[in-house]
Design a protein that fits this description.
The N and C termini lie far apart (64 Å). Helices cover 48% and strands 13% of the residues. It has three domains: 66 residues; 45 residues; 164 residues, Nucleotidyltransferase, domain 5. The protein has a five-stranded mixed beta sheet with strand order 3-2-1-4-5. By secondary structure, it is of the alpha/beta class. A hairpin with a 5-residue loop joins strand 2 and strand 3. Helix 1 packs across helix 2 and helix 2 crosses helix 3.
Length: 362
């Protein structure tokens, strides 16, 4: 019996494959290929991989061999299919690429394969081939926002240093508020999932109140300290600071990573911090919430407990949030921060250069 040898991966290849394997916006075919190669690299045979992933054994062998010969490029791009090459004048191809990048149709925000094909008298499939070869995706839109904080680099380096080199005899806490969490109750019964049919909810709902969740993520352990309040004023923020003071070892300094919300900087808060010298505030740059790790945890909370939840009252919502935190803290998962300040700054400079070039072009 022939046994396929395991693949060896570089750290860069493994990181790229793991990113594809868990990417929500990654095409399914690429997710499957990445999962096959990762399992093959861990020593699994094609038959075992096929059973785990619900695919065919020859499919596993195909992508194992393709990666062995061509590495990442071998699974990222489909192999050429039978048929003649694309026959189109170079000038037409250049014109299609130019219009895709620099113009818009008169009645839409972006080109589609059909609208571009109609303009140049070619087939939509031809436009698709050109876009694929040039890696153009007019249908996609990503969001960005650059901080205009004059102390951006200073604040960035301060926060990243806490992640990569936390101080001794101290806790680093990522702190923020998730405001206006709504207790939504569907107007009709939620129908359970069945074979071939997902769970179904009515699109309309009743609002049964809101709550604001104050949360602190321990960067080292991943544990959460959280409590709910009706509002998110300085008064409630001070109450949460007292909770942190009570629930953390008194011998440790507390370094809190915060956003620039006005309630974090009021005179009352500043006076309280002066009376409690173990508290140290570190503010992320403006428009840089991605730098605060607890935001990632808020997203997970929303996806797993809030968005599809049904709550008949505000108290029921608060109880659900408390229970989620308790269960999460039983097996906490700290976020591993790897990016250095220099790497982030280089990416920011590149984004600002693109913005400047775009302004010049317009």
């Amino acid at each position: 019996m022939r046994v396929a040898p395991p693949l060896s991966l570089t750290s860069e290849e493994r990181q790229r494959l793991e990113s594809w394997a868990r990417g929500r916006s990654t095409p399914h075919r690429l997710v499957l290929r990445a999962q096959i190669v990762l399992r093959a690299a861990d020593g699994a045979q094609n038959k075992q991989i096929a059973e785990e992933l619900g695919t065919q054994r020859n499919t596993c062998a195909l992508w194992r061999n393709r990666f062995h010969r061509l590495r990442l490029a071998g699974i990222e791009q489909d192999a050429p299919r039978p048929g003649g090459p694309l026959r189109l004048p170079d000038a037409t191809i250049r014109a299609i690429v130019h219009d895709t990048l620099h113009t818009r149709p008169p009645n839409a925000t972006h080109w589609s394969t059909r609208s571009m094909a109609e303009k140049y008298g070619v087939s939509p499939n031809t436009v698709h081939q050109i876009w694929t070869a040039r890696r153009l995706q007019p249908h996609r839109l990503e969001h960005y926002k650059l901080s205009r904080d004059k102390r951006f680099e200073e604040k960035l380096r301060d926060v990243v240093a806490l992640y990569l080199n936390p101080p001794e005899h101290a806790l680093v806490l990522s702190v923020d508020e998730k405001t206006q969490i709504q207790a939504l109750d569907r107007t009709q019964l939620t129908l359970p999932m069945r074979e071939g049919t997902p769970e179904r909810q009515t699109h309309d709902y009743r609002r049964n109140g809101t709550t604001d969740l104050f949360a602190a993520l321990d960067v080292l352990t991943g544990k959460i300290v959280g409590e709910c309040h009706k509002r998110h004023r300085a008064k409630e923020f001070l109450a949460f600071l007292r909770t942190l003071d009570r629930t953390t070892p008194s011998a440790l300094d507390l370094h809190l990573i915060l956003d620039n919300l006005a309630t974090h900087k009021t005179a009352k808060v500043k006076r309280w911090v002066l009376r409690h010298p173990r508290f140290h505030f570190h503010f992320v740059p403006t428009s840089s919430s991605w730098l605060n790790q607890v935001e990632r945890w808020f997203k997970e909370l929303t996806d797993k407990r809030v968005r599809r939840g049904t709550f008949h009252s505000e108290l029921e919502l608060i109880g659900a949030l408390k229970l989620y935190i308790e269960r999460y803290n039983e097996i906490p998962r700290p976020l591993i921060w790897r990016a250095t300040a220099d790497q982030i700054l280089e990416k920011v400079r590149w984004n600002r250069l693109n913005v400047d070039l775009s302004r010049t072009a317009h």
